[in-house]
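Explain this record to help learners:
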Amino acid sequence: MSRLVLGTAAFGPYAGQPALQPWEIIPLLRAAADAGIRWIDTAPSYGGAEEAIGAALAYRFPNEFLVATKVAADADYLTVRASVRRSLAQLRRERLDLVYVHNATTRVRSSPALDALRRAHDRGQVGRIGATVYTEAEALAAIEADLNVIQVPYHLLDRRMRATVFEAARHAGVTVYVRSVWARGLLTPRLIGDDRFPVEAFADAERIRFRLWTTWEQLPDVALQFALHDDRVAGALIGVRTPQELDQAVQAATRRLPWWRAALAATWRQNSDPKAWDPRTWGA
């Protein structure tokens, strides 16, 4: 089974492109199934992705994938209860395999959203419960709240989670999935000059590319291999829109990061502020 997770944020309107339709998603899901990918990660906020995925799964793949979706961390009990019911209907599932408290804070243990998910679990509507977070403190709070899964940002330019979170999760028996393995496009050739990122972030991307002796075209593969190199990581989310993009990621994931690149990456130190990688600070 592949350690890749099919992320679907790009299934909605993305970078000026229209949302994918169910008939466009089906070839992508077929390629994912053939590659051994079993998890799909989605959310109600992904521009109709839940409904399109639900239609594609019901038509061609009723039993081949597990689906993770999300509820808002700041939602009240009744709102989360309604969100779960809506996701069940849109995804055409009898049970949601995994539901995250999305953008959870350090107060996740006492949140109405978590209480509502635990009640939904007791009713058989939800399987596992997790949290998506941005900071180490939020990740550790989610682990202490006895959740099953955490989803954290982790890539060549942001390794905060490795120092404490990965080991704490391992000791607690909490599954770790990582996202943003391409730093939201910065570790790819296509976003050079994007003004969402500070100048020092682009400088860090160029420095790590040079240090790892790779080209901009090869850097996405190296970045994905880095994210999967730590065995405490159960899987990595990838955001793709075509079977061709998926195939490139699958091929990269089958190759382990060479020992010498792993050693060079381990000793590299970033210049940019880690807070630059939190989208909640963009435009502030």
